[in-house]
Amino acid sequence: MTTTTPTTTRPTGSPASSRRPRASSIGVPLALGLVGTAVALVGSSTVSLWTDEAATVSAATRSLPELWALVQRIDAVHAAYYLVMHLWTSVAGISPFALRLPSAIAVGVSVVGVHRLLVVLGRPDAAVVGAVVAIVLPRITWMGIEARSFGPSAAFAVWATVLLVVALRRGGTGRWVGYAALLGIGTALNIYVALLAVAHAVTVVVARDVTIRRRLAWLVAAAGGGLAASPVVLLAAGQQGQLGDNRLGLVQIARGVVVNQWFLGGTPTRVTSTASPTEPWALASLGLALVGWALIVLAVVAGRRRDGRRALFALAPVLVVPTVVVVAYSLTVSPLYNPRYFTFAAPVCAALVGLGVLALRRRAARVVAVVAVVLLCVPVYASQRQVTGKSGTDWAEASAVVDRGSAPGDGVYFAPLDDGTATVVRRTTDNVEVTYPEAFEGLVDVTRRSDALDEDSLRGTSWPLGSDRSRLTEVDRLWVVEPDDPPTGLEDDEVLAREGFVRVSRWSGGMTAVEEWARP
User: Fold this and answer.
1) Residue of 156, 207, 161, 133 lying closest to 355 (CA atoms)
2) How far is it, in rounded angstroms, from Cα 424 to Cα 65?
3) Most CB contacts within 10 A, which of 131, 215, 299, 427?
4) pTM for this model (two decimals)
């Protein structure tokens, strides 16, 4: 008699097999992440650097003692990011591409995080769609070419949310320690990530299948993350204005929440611009906001009706709670709201939009929804990748004008940004030189009073052009870098005329103007 020993097999969907990642399950999100980084990198070297990025350059290029002196006085909220960028720029340099590369990589990490978040929430069917939305979502494509902490903090935030979901379901000391670390690092990079813990608190409270023990474990982990970030938080607490002072009306805040926060990213024109609201990027952002919010509402409704409450409880608080807290504070206490401060929640927005697409019953409707989202993102994406895509900043073009026409020994004058009769000028157009220093090598700054390092600040100071301390007598040709509508234009022209200079040429970029003056 022959006996046959049965082979032991596991069903394909059993826990033992599902814990073992297959190459295909890793390859798809990895490929999506690489696409996300590639899409973010487009334009990273051509879009002009702007004011916030000038602050990054000014801080990151200091020595460690000089950086420490800076954050003791100002910008402590960015201290951790400046430290990271100090290390990065010492190797990669300060070209626009190098400065923005970490943020573009963070986009890819965030895209993978969106995919993984939907998988651990039990919605692998929506994971690819959510990741695709993350690749094109304007707030995420914007953070990919912003040399600030928004991109890295978004990556830490989405992966902290992934670990939260897994730890609440499975427990494990290692997962809670990882969660605390991600939350702490994210908060140190961007203090607004602390609001993620508030959103997670709502998730922990409303989730019905979470034990008391794991709720307590979350509390300990969140406290640990807060403790890890506390040096930055405490240092920033003593610096006035470090969390923003953006005085907006209710209508402006509403537009920021509904459109700019997720579906525009940043305007490619100056805030004070009278640009037509019928610009393609403006119309597209409105249409995208309409479609995006409709899909988010659909995801919420579908999550309540079906077995989707786990996803709803994990995602909705991250999207809603931080915004509600900041808007309420801004309206009742002190102005604090700025759409870009919520970039850390953008991956969750993409995940909810992806769930909304999958809530549509017909496959054709899903395809139409995804195509509509992508197509509506295209004009916004194109506006972000203009040379002047950062609020109309044209410093790349202005510095190129100086670089082409100047010669060593020429003078340069960075004009004031503010009107007034102060004996010391504290805000000038010199951020053009900070961001594009090669164009100004060998030129004589005729009004420089002190460098940023002397002031332990992000920018130095200057004398007025008409001051007897200016160095106009040392140069025969002068390059004037001024606002396109200079507050002291006529006065400066009179000073230069008295000194024997004649205007030779003028270039205007919309925000900045460059004039060449020379002695006959």
Assistant:
1) 133
2) 27
3) 131
4) 0.92
- Among 485, 481, 439, 447, which Cα is nearest to 464's? 447
Closest CA to 470 of 446, 445, 500: 446
CA dihedral 151, 156, 160, 166 (to 10 degrees): 90
Question: Is the CA virtual torsion 384, 386, 390, 396 positive or negative?
Answer: positive
Q: Which of 130, 179, 125, 126 is nearest to 156 (CA)?
A: 179
Of the candidates 80, 323, 286, 332, the residue with the CA atom closest to the CA atom of residue 191: 80
Domain spans of the chain, in order of start? 26-384, 395-518
Is 252:128 a contact under the CB 8 Å cutoff?
Answer: no
pLDDT in tens, 389-446: 999 999 999 999 999 999 999 999 999 999 877 899 999 999 999 999 999 999 999 9
Give the tens place of pLDDT for each residue, 124-138. Answer: 999 999 999 999 999
Going by their DSSP bridges, the two strands 448-450 and 444-445 should be labelled as unpaired
- 471: which DSSP letter? -
pLDDT at 23: 45
